[in-house]
Amino acid sequence: MTADIVKNSSFIAVQNENIKSWIKNKQLSHSIQLNAPRKLLEKIEQKCQQENIKFVKVSKFYPSTQICSNCQKRNENLKGLKNLGIRDWDCPHCHTHHDRDRNAAINILNKGLEIVGTTVQ
């Protein structure tokens, strides 16, 4: 799986999450242990180095799920663990409807490109 991800990519950006703190959360811990995300990311990073593909880690403090990928304004209503159940939302500023995970992925990609000093062509 990691080979396919890297083979089909020219750039990979991920959010450097604090997975250890997630394990303390009873609702998240079981699925995290089953998925072993840290090992997956380590393998992807290693393969990126071998294939000379840029791999960027975005800070765990970057609010990727809270920023509207359309207008770049932050939705303060999405802060905190209590709001993890909110899976889609409308931007209070530009009224764009977002799937939380897709929006976060767009924001992480854009932040990763910003870190390396480029943008999507």
Could you describe the 3D structure shown?
With 121 residues, this protein is α+β, with helices and mostly antiparallel strands. It has helices at 2-7, 19-23, 26-35, 37-51, 100-116, and strands at residues 11-15, 54-58, 88-90, 97-99. Strand 3 and strand 4 form a beta hairpin. The longest helix has 17 residues, at 100-116.
At a glance:
With 121 residues, the protein is of the alpha+beta class.
Strand and helix order: HEHHHEEEH
Largest sheet: 2 strands, parallel
Rg from C-alpha positions? 15 Å
Q: State which percent range the strand residues make up.
A: 5-15%
The overall pLDDT average reads: 85
* Extended strand count: 4
Low-confidence blocks of residues: none
Keywords:
single chain, 121 residues, globular
Task: Summarize the helices and strands and which ones pair or pack.
Blueprint lengths: L1 H6 L3 E5 L3 H5 L2 H10 L1 H15 L2 E5 L29 E3 L6 E3 H17 L5
Parallel strand pairs: 1-2
Antiparallel strand pairs: 3-4
